[in-house]
Design a protein that fits this description.
- The protein is built from 19 helices and two strands.
- α2 (22-34) crosses α3 (36-43) and α7 (101-112) crosses α10 (165-179).
- The protein is 49% helix and 1% strand.
- It is elongated.
- Bound molecules: protoporphyrin IX containing FE.
- Residues 102-103, 105-106, 109, 145, 207, 209, 218, 235-236, 238-239, 241-245, 248-249, 251, 297, 299 line the site of protoporphyrin IX containing FE.
- It comes from Solanum commersonii (Commerson's wild potato).
- Belongs to the peroxidase family. Ascorbate peroxidase subfamily.
Length: 420
C-alpha cells in the first residue's frame, strides 16, 4: 500500500494524530458550543477520536456540570439534504472528467458489504457507515486500490462538511450507476459515520473471487448480509462496469484490447467490451465465455452453473428490463445495510413532485395571461356542455337554441299579459 502517502496522508488518522494540539482543542470546544455546522464538519473527520481524546483531557476537572458530557458526546446528525444535492452535481462532474464510475461503485459496495445481520449493535454489525475511509480497513486485501476512490471523493467531502462519508460513498455509487446508463436507484440518506478506526470491521467479511466452492462461499457471505440468491446474481451484474487489475486484486490480465487505451488509467481486464456502460452485457458475456479478452472470475462463472443462480442469470441475459428492476431493488437494499440513519427513517434527495396530492392553489397561476386549462377544468366544462346537449367537437344543435328563444318569447308574452 505504497500509495498511502502524499496527497492521501491527510485522509488518514495515523498521519495526523500528532498534529492535534491543545490550542486546536480549545478552538474546537468553542466551535462545538457555538455552531452546529462546525459540529458537522468536525463530526465527519477521521481525526475525531483524537480530537475527543484531547478535548476530554482539556475539559475534565474544569466543570462538574452536565456541560462536559454534552460536549464530549455530541449528537450525530444526518447529512444536509441541500449539500447532498450539490455533492451529487460535483460527483457528476468528477465522473465526466475521470471516468471513475466503476471504482465508485466498488467503494460503495465494499463499505456496505461488511454487514453482519447476526450482530445487532452498531457499528459492530458493519455495513454502510463510512468505516472504509480509515487506513486499517483500506488495507484489507479485498479493498486493494480503493484508496484511489477515496482520493477522488475527498475534495468533495472537504467542500461539503454537512455530508457524512457513509452517505457520500453511497451517493457516489448510485450516481455512477445512473450516469453510466443504469437505472435510477431510490436511495435514502442520513447515514451516520463511525468516528474512529477502532470501529472498523475485522478483515474477511467481503467475498473472495476464487474460493474452493464459489456457490457456497457466495451464499455464506451474502446470506450473512441478509441477501438472497436473486440479489447475489443481480448485484454481480455490477461487473458490467470496470476492470480487474492484477496489481490490485491479483485477478485479470494487465491489459486487453478493450482497456489498453483507457478511458481513465489504462490497463486491467474488463468483464464487458463497453465497461463504462451499465447494461446486461455482463450476463451475455459470462454465459458465452467466447472472448479471451473478457474476464470471468470463478464467482462469475458459477452464476450459470448453480441451478438457483442460473435461473436469474439466464433471465438477465435476455431481458435487460428485468435485470434493471432487480438490480435497482438489490442496490438500494445493499446501500442501507447496517446503516444507522438520522432521522431514523432516512430521507430522499429526489424531488418527488405532488404525485397523488391535490394541486395547490397558486393565485399567480390564474391572474394573468392566457393559460391552458387544467384537465379537471376541461372535463368539468365538457360535462356541463354535454348536459346542455352539445359536445366540444360538435356545436349545440340549432333547434336547441330555437327552443330556448321560443321559451323566452313565451315567458315574455306571459309576463306582459299578466303584468297588465
Ligand atoms: C459476488 C462477489 C464478488 C466478488 C468475488 C468480486 C470481486 C471483484 C474483484 C476481484 C474485482 C477486481 C478489483 C481490482 O482488481 O481492482 C472487482 C471489481 C469490481 N467489483 Fe466486484 N466482486 C463481487 C461483487 C460485487 C458487487 C456486489 C458489486 C457491486 C454491487 C461489485 C462491483 C465491482 C466493480 C464496479 C468493480 C470494478 C472496479 C474498478 O474497475 O475499479 N462487485 N470485484
Amino acid at each position: 500500500m505504497a500509495s498511502l502517502t502524499g496527497a492521501t496522508s491527510h485522509l488518514l488518522p495515523s498521519a495526523t494524530t500528532s498534529a492535534t494540539s491543545a490550542s486546536t482543542t480549545a478552538r474546537l470546544a468553542i466551535s462545538f458550543s457555538s455552531s452546529s455546522s462546525s459540529l458537522k464538519c468536525i463530526r465527519s473527520s477521521p481525526l475525531l477520536p483524537h480530537i475527543f481524546r484531547y478535548q476530554k483531557r482539556a475539559l475534565i476537572g474544569t466543570t462538574s456540570s452536565g456541560r462536559f458530557s454534552t460536549l464530549a458526546s455530541p449528537k450525530c446528525a444526518a447529512s444536509d439534504p441541500d449539500q447532498l444535492k450539490s455533492a451529487r452535481e460535483d460527483i457528476k462532474e468528477l465522473l465526466k472528467t475521470t471516468f471513475c464510475h466503476p471504482i465508485l461503485v466498488r467503494l460503495g459496495w465494499h463499505d456496505a458489504g461488511t454487514y453482519n445481520k447476526n450482530i445487532e449493535d452498531w457499528p459492530q454489525r458493519g455495513g454502510a457507515n463510512g468505516s472504509l475511509r480509515f487506513e486499517v480497513e483500506l488495507k484489507h486485501g479485498a479493498n486493494a486500490g480503493l484508496v484511489n476512490a477515496l482520493k477522488l471523493l475527498q475534495p468533495i467531502k472537504d467542500k461539503y462538511a454537512g455530508v457524512t462519508y457513509a452517505d457520500l460513498f453511497q451517493l457516489a455509487s448510485a450516481t455512477a450507476i445512473e450516469e453510466a446508463g443504469g437505472p435510477k436507484i431510490p436511495m435514502k440518506y442520513g447515514r451516520v459515520d463511525v468516528s474512529g478506526p477502532e470501529e472498523c470491521p475485522e478483515e474477511g467479511r467481503l467475498p473472495d473471487a476464487g474460493p474452493p466452492s464459489p456457490s457456497s462461499h457466495l451464499r455464506d457471505v451474502f446470506y450473512r448480509m441478509g441477501l438472497n440468491d436473486k440479489e447475489i446474481v443481480a448485484l454481480s451484474g455490477a461487473h458490467t462496469l470496470g476492470r480487474s487489475r492484477p496489481d490490485r486484486s491479483g485477478w485479470g490480465k494487465p491489459e486487453t484490447r478493450y482497456t489498453k487505451d483507457g478511458p481513465g488509467s489504462p490497463g486491467g481486464q474488463s468483464w464487458t467490451v463497453q465497461w463504462l456502460k451499465f447494461d446486461n452485457s455482463y450476463f451475455k458475456d459470462i454465459k458465452e465465455q467466447r472472448d479471451e479478452d473478457l474476464l470471468v472470475l470463478p464467482t462469475d462463472a458459477v452464476l450459470f452453473e448453480d441451478s438457483s443462480f442460473k435461473e436469474y442469470a439466464e433471465k438477465y441475459a435476455v431481458n435487460q428490463d428485468v435485470f434493471f428492476k432487480d438490480y435497482t431493488e438489490a442496490h438500494a437494499k445493499l446501500s442501507n445495510l447496517g446503516a444507522k440513519f438520522d432521522p431514523l427513517e432516512g430521507f430522499s434527495i429526489d424531488n418527488n413532485p405532488t404525485q397523488g396530492q391535490p394541486e395547490k392553489f397558486v393565485a399567480a397561476k390564474y391572474s394573468t395571461g392566457k393559460r391552458e386549462l387544467s384537465d379537471a377544468m376541461k372535463q368539468k366544462i365538457r360535462a356541463e356542455y354535454e348536459g346542455l346537449g352539445g359536445t366540444p367537437d360538435k356545436p349545440l344543435p340549432t333547434n336547441y337554441f330555437l327552443n330556448i328563444i321560443i321559451v323566452i318569447g313565451v315567458l315574455a308574452i306571459l309576463t306582459y299579459l299578466f303584468g297588465n
